[in-house]
Design brief:
The chain has 327 residues and is an alpha/beta fold. Helix content is 48%, strand content 9%. The chain is built from 12 helices and 6 strands. It has a 6-stranded parallel β-sheet with strand order 3-2-4-1-5-6, sandwiched between helices. The relative contact order is 0.18.
Length: 327
């Protein structure tokens, strides 16, 4: 394991303000002589061309804190979590080796895990087989395909979860087996000493921030981004970004702008709930409630917690290392 300061992870639900807090924390670390660099753990910020839709850091924010793994792939790329894990882990390893402080920032649970821990990944999707199964689902219905799954696998997949049904059946036909529980994918053993900070906010405040973000996004260029992405042939994975399908429907004349805004807002709220659920299940995560705090005070609260961790962390002292992640 490389010597130097440990990594920090800042994650949480959509619209909670992860980027702003990471930048504020980075500036505090620089005052102590640290050299922080952000590593994005977002499944869609890695694509070029969807800047507004997926709320990438702005040019001003990028000038304040370097972000790795943002806008690194063309929209036509079918980028997998296994590929992301290789890239993210290499970035983190290199930063630690150089004595820099990786601040892993993201809201995509699987990608955060892929950056910080070795995952028990199943084989990559077979595009032809997946298309065949999706055609079967369209013809037979998701209930019929769910019934084809082995009992122990079917028990862990909701009968209405079309995406997981397709993936589980795909793995079965490839001679593999889907994880029965998401925890089987995630090792509690982190690759490096990492302080895990989960940002939370009371529900009303978070919903209000989402409600403010969506119309700003739609008016700020997201519609034009999706229109161009469709022309360019955006990949299946890129099209899964929240808002892409809804805006595409508007462009086809199948939905009015007000309907699109309402649907995107609802999907973001639902996604935020799921993010909060898995975040609270993670071992060793320190929850930081920023309901009444701006990014500066939130960053200061995180730094105070870092200072309380037994042993030197390379910020206040550079003489050694600490031995474990703490809560």
């Amino acid at each position: 394991m490389p010597s130097g300061p440990p990594a920090i992870a800042i994650f949480g639900p959509t619209a909670v303000g992860k980027t702003e807090v990471a930048i504020a924390l980075a500036e505090l670390l620089r005052e102590r002589g640290g050299r922080p660099v952000a590593v994005s753990a977002d499944a869609y910020q890695l694509y070029r061309g969807l800047d507004v839709l997926v709320a990438k850091p702005s040019d001003e924010q990028l000038a304040r804190l370097e972000h790795r793994l943002v806008s690194m792939e063309p929209l036509t790329s079918e980028f997998s979590v296994a590929q992301f894990a290789e890239r993210a882990q290499a970035e983190i390893d290199a930063l630690l080796e150089a004595g820099q402080v990786p601040i892993v920032v993201g809201g995509t649970g699987l990608y955060l895990r892929a950056a910080l821990s070795d995952l028990d990944l199943r084989p990559a999707p077979d595009v032809g087989l997946r298309e065949q199964i999706e055609r079967e689902m369209a013809e037979l219905g998701h209930e019929a395909l769910h019934a084809q799954l082995p009992g122990e696998v079917a028990a862990g997949v909701h009968p209405n979860d079309r995406k997981r049904i397709v993936r589980a059946l795909e793995l079965e036909r490839m001679g593999s087996r889907a994880h029965e529980r998401s925890e089987q994918l995630w090792s509690r053993q982190l690759r490096h000493e990492t302080a895990l900070f989960g940002l939370v906010m009371d529900r009303e405040r978070l919903d209000a921030r989402i409600a403010e973000r969506v119309p700003r996004m739609l008016a700020g260029g997201a519609v034009e981004e999706v229109e161009q992405a469709l022309v360019d042939g955006a990949s299946r994975t890129a099209r899964k970004a929240i808002g892409f399908a809804e805006i595409a429907a508007q462009l086809r004349g199948e939905a009015e702008p007000a309907q699109v805004a309402e649907r995107i807002e609802r999907r973001h709220r639902q996604y935020a709930r799921r993010q909060l659920t898995w975040m609270r299940k993670l071992a060793d995560v320190q929850l930081v409630d920023r309901s009444g705090d701006d990014e500066q005070r939130t960053a200061e609260a995180i730094l105070e917690r870092l200072d309380r961790v037994p042993g030197p962390w390379g910020f206040a002292s550079r003489s050694g290392r600490h031995s474990a992640t703490t809560t």
